[in-house]
């Protein structure tokens, strides 16, 4: 006998369940990143998908390229850099000129334009993620960024055109708040005017996911795109491909 596939749709106040015959053998799936109690509330509005950006959608050059730019190990870089300068930059409290001045604790001069060029070269879509975003867009899902990042998100947009798939709606440098602060998540709900249980929050950092769950969101920790597709299906985000 063929197995059955359940497809849940969220474009109606009444759930529509399509049962399709499938003759492929059932696949074992690891849903360890999603507690079983998590599920989307059915509503007239489709689930809203909120994506972290760095190391969830886009490769983060800080952990791959910046050490080489400065000629340091990661340990040396973390010991020498100012402990809060980047956080202040992410929250929009300082501009890039001030970041360049205080990037290191000893305020040594840095090549700010060179650093920006290094970051620009390093930005790329994580393997398989752009294809997922294409499929989600084709299926009509509402998607927004929910990211801790400075004004340099504009460089990412210029290079990768992420706005083809989602809006840069929630960015720490504009909000003045960072994950995992509870107010970050509250502001999302206030602006979208949606119940938290209708929001799926995706982030590579478990602390940010746990904070989202505490705020009532459905949370998924990103590990790779194949697991993310399975995890999205697990919480009811169906991706139909033609």
What can be said about this structure in brief?
The chain is of the alpha/beta class and 242 residues long. The protein is 36% helix and 15% strand. Helix 7 links the parallel strand 4 and strand 5 (167-171).
Query: What is the CATH T-level topology of the largest domain?
Result: Rossmann fold
Radius of gyration: 20 Å
- Strand tally is 7
Q: How many structural domains are formed by the residues?
A: 2
The CATH architecture designation of the largest domain is: 3-Layer(aba) Sandwich
Main sheet: strands, sense, barrel? 5 strands, parallel
Order of helices and strands: EEEHHHHHHEHEHHEHEH
The share of residues in extended strands comes to: 5-15%
Estimated structural class: alpha/beta
Helix content: 25-40%
Report on this structure.
GO terms for molecular function: FMN hydrolase activity. It holds the Pfam family Hydrolase. This is FCP1 homology domain-containing protein. This protein has 242 residues and is an alpha/beta fold. The chain is built from eleven helices and seven strands. It has two domains: 166 residues, Rossmann fold (3-Layer(aba) Sandwich), CATH 3.40.50.1000; 62 residues. Strands 5-4-3-6-7 form a five-stranded parallel β-sheet, with helices on both faces. The protein has a two-stranded antiparallel sheet with strand order 1-2. The N terminus is likely disordered.
Keywords:
36% helix, FCP1 homology domain-containing protein, 2 domains, two-stranded antiparallel ribbon, five-stranded parallel β-sheet, HAD-SF_hydro_IA, alpha/beta, disordered N terminus, Rossmann fold, FMN hydrolase activity, HAD_sf, 242 residues, HAD-like_sf, 11 helices, single chain
């Amino acid at each position: 006998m063929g197995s059955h596939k359940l497809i849940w749709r969220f474009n109606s106040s009444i759930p529509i369940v399509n049962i399709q015959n499938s003759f492929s053998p059932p696949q074992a799936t690891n849903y360890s990143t999603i507690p079983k109690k998590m599920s989307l509330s059915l509503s007239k509005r489709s689930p809203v998908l909120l994506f972290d950006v760095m190391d969830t959608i886009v490769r983060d050059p800080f952990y791959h390229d910046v050490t080489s730019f400065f000629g340091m190990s990661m340990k040396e870089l973390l010991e020498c850099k100012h402990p809060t300068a980047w956080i202040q930059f992410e929250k929009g409290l300082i501009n890039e000129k001030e970041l360049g001045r205080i990037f290191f604790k000893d305020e040594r001069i840095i090549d700010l334009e060179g650093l920006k060029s290094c970051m620009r070269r390093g930005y790329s879509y994580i393997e398989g993620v752009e294809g997922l975003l294409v499929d989600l867009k084709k299926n009509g899902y509402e998607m927004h960024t929910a990211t801790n990042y400075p004004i340099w998100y504009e460089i990412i947009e210029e290079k990768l055109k992420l706005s083809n798939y989602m809006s840069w709606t929630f960015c720490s440098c504009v909000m003045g708040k960072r994950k995992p602060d509870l107010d970050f998540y509250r502001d999302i709900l206030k602006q979208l005017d949606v119940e938290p249980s209708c929001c799926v929050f995706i982030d590579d950092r478990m602390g940010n996911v746990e904070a989202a769950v505490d705020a009532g969101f459905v949370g998924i920790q990103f590990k790779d795109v194949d697991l993310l597709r399975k995890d999205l299906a697990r919480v009811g985000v169906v991706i139909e491909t033609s």
